[in-house]
């Protein structure tokens, strides 16, 4: 640990990144001397960039993505599974600000979850709060919170983010007691941010997933009519990977 008084004071001011920059770029004998203005500018820029990146890392961690390394830049458009134009509107903040939805459909293994995570991480990089949850886990969370009386807290958890991602809609049983809570969550989320849903099932089959037609109508009305649909086609990515490994 450095005993330099400037380093000590910077750390006391909670400018630890600036302190590291000072040690690296000023106190190291092998580095060329820089002007005071250059030093201060470099320290402040380094502090700002580090805080920015740490904030993004925290947003990604809190989102609980299934694939936390998925990146938009890593999409392989050459497979023709997806075109740049089909997701271009989801790379801007406008759809979140307008509280719109996105629906990613496709057979199992076509990369729906990975793409949802990539879009979610892209939103985190734009400093948006995101929460990822698999539909079956969401349903279980609702059932447990009904049982222990914490349903209000559970609703709040899913309705205070800029983007809520529900993965694998249609997997897991939609029990009658779940449906009103799910409707409430989706209704509240539609007033605060965006909603992204992935599903193996085409939209025309979603209504039949609900035990009650009235709630089905209400939920789908809040999702489908203002949604950006994306359909992934082609052979299962998992199957292709298995062939490569074998």
Automatic annotation (TrEMBL):
Identify the keywords attached in UniProt to this record, alphabetized: ATP-binding, Nucleotide-binding
Q: What range(s) does the IstB-like ATP-binding domain occupy?
A: 8-240
Q: Name one GO biological process term.
A: DNA replication
Q: What is the superkingdom listed in this entry's lineage?
A: Bacteria
Q: Name one Pfam family in it.
A: IstB_IS21
Q: Name one GO molecular function term.
A: ATP binding
| Protein name (Swiss-Prot/TrEMBL) | Transposase
Which organism is this protein's natural source? Moraxella cuniculi
Kindly list the organism's lineage: Bacteria, Pseudomonadati, Pseudomonadota, Gammaproteobacteria, Moraxellales
């Amino acid at each position: 640990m450095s005993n330099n008084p400037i380093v000590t004071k910077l750390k006391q001011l909670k400018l630890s990144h600036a302190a590291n920059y000072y040690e690296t770029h000023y106190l190291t004998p092998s580095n060329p001397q820089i002007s005071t203005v250059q030093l201060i500018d470099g320290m402040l820029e380094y502090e700002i960039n580090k805080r920015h990146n740490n904030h993004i890392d925290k947003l990604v961690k809190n989102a609980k993505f299934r694939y936390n390394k998925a990146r938009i830049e890593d999409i392989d458009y050459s497979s023709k599974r997806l075109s740049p134009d089909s997701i271009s509107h989801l790379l801007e903040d406008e759809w979140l600000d307008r509280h719109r939805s996105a629906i990613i459909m496709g057979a199992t293994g076509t990369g729906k979850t990975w793409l949802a995570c990539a879009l979610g991480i892209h939103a985190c990089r734009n400093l948006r709060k995101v929460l990822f949850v698999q539909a079956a886990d969401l349903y279980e969370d609702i059932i447990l919170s009904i049982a222990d009386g914490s349903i209000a807290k559970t609703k709040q958890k899913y309705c205070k983010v800029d983007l809520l991602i529900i993965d694998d809609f249609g997997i897991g049983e939609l029990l009658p007691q779940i449906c009103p809570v799910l409707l409430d969550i989706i209704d509240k989320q539609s007033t605060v941010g965006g909603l992204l849903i992935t599903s193996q099932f085409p939209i025309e089959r979603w209504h039949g997933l609900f035990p009650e037609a009235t709630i089905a109508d209400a939920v789908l009305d809040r999702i489908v009519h203002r949604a950006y649909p994306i359909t992934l086609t082609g052979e299962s990515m998992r199957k292709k990977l298995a062939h490569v490994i074998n």
